[in-house]
């Protein structure tokens, strides 16, 4: 990319390191940013830094939030005895969009993947088990239907079974390998309602 100035090349390089941004998009974004007003660029940069600084894990469910407890864990309207286990904060957001789930969540931040060298200790699993010492009635496992998601679901159900707490898995109406966040609300609800005990 010698035909661009160093600064522009660096900007393109940084942007193309982001997920889903190829070099074409990165170039387009870079030139868009260069053409923005300086105040706008400053605001964008500050928003990035502030978000990084202030966003943290909820102490209870480990979703991303900017407070000690997320709004869901804080709410007295939610059923705190039912925990839905999801892989990522974006999966939680997908279920929240349906507006029909009244329990709380637990965000693992990943799934077990022997192939990628991700073990149970690399996701927020210890934290889930710790929560089960409280008054919990049901754990709904809503990890993705990918190989990693299924492996994780099986692992979790084996861990929980001895505690006597009800464990269920969302129905597999969800396409195999499908990321929860891309599935429409009706399918998500059907998957939740059709969950089966493990
Ligand atoms: Zn929370």
Topology:
Layout: H1 6-16, H2 23-35, H3 38-54, E1 56-57, E2 64-65, H4 71-74, E3 79-86, H5 89-98, E4 103-107, H6 125-131, E5 138-141, H7 147-160, E6 166-169, H8 185-193, E7 196-197
Parallel strand pairs: 3-4, 3-5, 5-6
Antiparallel strand pairs: 1-2, 6-7
Helix pairs in contact: 1-2, 5-8
The structure holds zinc ion (ZN).
Characterize the structure shown.
With 198 residues, the protein is an alpha/beta fold. It has helices at residues 6-16, 23-35, 38-54, 71-74, 89-98, 125-131, 147-160, 185-193; strands at 56-57, 64-65, 79-86, 103-107, 138-141, 166-169, 196-197. The strands form two sheets. Strands 4-3-5-6-7 form a five-stranded mixed β-sheet. It has a two-stranded antiparallel ribbon with strand order 1-2. α7 links the parallel β5 and β6 (166-169). α1 (6-16) packs across α2. The termini are far apart. The model has no long low-confidence stretch (mean pLDDT 90). It binds zinc ion. The site of zinc ion has 8 residues, from α4.
> Which ligands are bound?
zinc ion
**Cα separation of the termini:** 55 Å
Shape: elongated
How many β-strand stretches? 7
Rg, alpha carbons:
20 Å
Give the uncertain stretches in residue-range form.
none
The SSE order reads HHHEEHEHEHEHEHE
Widest sheet: strand ordering: 4-3-5-6-7
Work out the helix count. 8
- In which range does the helix fraction lie? 40-55%
Structural class: alpha/beta
Characterize the largest beta sheet: strand count, sense, and whether it forms a barrel.
5 strands, mixed
**Mean pLDDT over all positions:** 90
Percentage of residues in strands = 5-15%
């Amino acid at each position: 990319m010698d035909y661009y100035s160093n600064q522009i090349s660096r900007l393109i390089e940084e942007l193309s390191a982001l997920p889903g941004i190829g070099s074409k998009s990165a170039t387009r974004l870079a030139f868009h940013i260069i053409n923005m007003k300086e105040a706008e660029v400053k605001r964008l940069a500050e928003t990035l830094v502030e978000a990084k600084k202030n966003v943290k894990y909820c102490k209870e469910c480990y979703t991303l939030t900017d407070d000690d407890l997320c709004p869901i864990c804080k709410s007295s309207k939610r059923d705190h005895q039912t925990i839905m286990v999801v892989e990522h904060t974006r999966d939680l957001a997908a279920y929240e969009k349906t507006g029909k789930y009244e329990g709380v969540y637990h965000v693992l931040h990943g799934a077990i993947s022997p192939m990628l060298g991700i073990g149970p200790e690399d996701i927020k699993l210890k934290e889930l088990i710790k929560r089960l010492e409280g008054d919990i009635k049901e754990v709904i496992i809503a990890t993705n239907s990918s190989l990693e998601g299924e492996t994780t679901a099986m692992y979790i159900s084996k861990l929980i079974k001895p505690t006597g707490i009800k464990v269920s898995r969302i129905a597999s109406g969800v396409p195999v390998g499908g990321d929860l966040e891309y599935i429409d609300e009706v399918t998500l609800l059907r998957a939740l309602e059709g969950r089966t005990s493990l």
